[in-house]
Amino acid sequence: MMNSTLNHSSGLIEAAGRLLSTARRILFITGAGLSADSGLPTYRGVGGLYEGALTDIGLPIEQALSGAMFEKRPDIAWRYLSQIEASCRGAHPNAGHYAIARLEALHGQVTVVTQNVDGFHLLAGSRDVIEMHGTLRRLRCVDCGRVRQVESYAGLEIPPACPHCGGILRPDVVLFGEHLPSQALHRFETVLAQRPDLVISVGTGSAFPYIAGPVLAAAGRGDPTIEINPGGTHLSELVTVRLRMRAAEALPAILDAAGYSLDSGRDACS
Questions:
Q1: Burial of 41 (0-12, 13-18, 19+ CB in 10 A)
Q2: Which CATH architecture group holds 2-40+92-133+179-258?
């Protein structure tokens, strides 16, 4: 199946490779579709973790996982936070994550902006990563602010207590109804000010301004854009190259087409 998909898309992969080979500043925008190739469920839609309209306690997931719910009933918010973390447990970065990290190592000017909270980009070796929604792997005390890194939530009392002050710990993620972290937003704005000349959207159909905005801005300037998504999105008709493929298939193929392979020796000065 993978070979037939690649053969069918070979012309588009070559076109994407040419764009990648000439780009100086590259911005990747990644969403749940990338981590789906690691076996993680998306949160909504067919086969999603919360495919139904309501959770098992009769609440929309947007309410159960809201900042307001965490303040009133942290046990309910933690119920679903722990479910999301459990869905990540045992999963690993896939070929798409590793391809992006490899490109950064060989090219240099590569930034990743991700909606995902699984931490897979950093685990794969990417360094310039902006986790817009935070990460499940970092817990923060709501009272004293101390931070604790964790590999998984296995064995944690839910909701967990801070070992320093006894306050409630929460994952350092953005819950529904909360603002994006100012530090991440500042880094994101800095990247946009540098005007990346290639924007690649991977596995996301989000209409959030910080996800769709860079693609729209690049298209408006006449700069090239690539979309990698098995399905269509509201951006599909605007991008320069559209690959209806899984990210774990498409990204390594594009890097190979651009001449960025592990043994190529190509670097940022080539």
A1: middle
A2: 3-Layer(aba) Sandwich (3.40)
Q: What is the pTM of this model?
A: 0.88
Catalytic-role residue among 92, 97, 121, 133 = 133
For the domain with range 41-90+136-173, which CATH number is right: 3.40.50.150, 3.40.1010.20, 3.30.1600.10, 2.60.40.10? Answer: 3.30.1600.10
> What is the end-to-end Cα distance of the chain in Å, rounded?
35
Q: What are the strands, taking DSSP E only, across 68-128?
A: 110-114
- Give yes or no on whether 2-40+92-133+179-258 and 41-90+136-173 have one common fold: no
3-state secondary structure of 111: strand
133 is catalytic: yes
The one-letter amino acid code at 43 reads Y
- Per-residue pLDDT reduced to its tens digit, 208-222: 888 899 999 999 999
* pLDDT tens-place string over residues 114-156: 999 999 999 999 999 999 999 999 999 999 999 999 989 998 9
CA atoms within 13 A on the CB side of 127: 9
Domain ranges of the chain: 2-40+92-133+179-258, 41-90+136-173
Q: Which residues pair with 199 in a beta bridge?
A: 27, 225
DSSP structural state of residue 37: T
Helix (H) or strand (E) holding 129: strand 129-131
Contact 173, 131 (CB under 8 A): no
Q: Nearest CA to 135 among 169, 171, 159, 183? A: 171
Within its chain, how far is the Cα of 165 from the centroid? 33
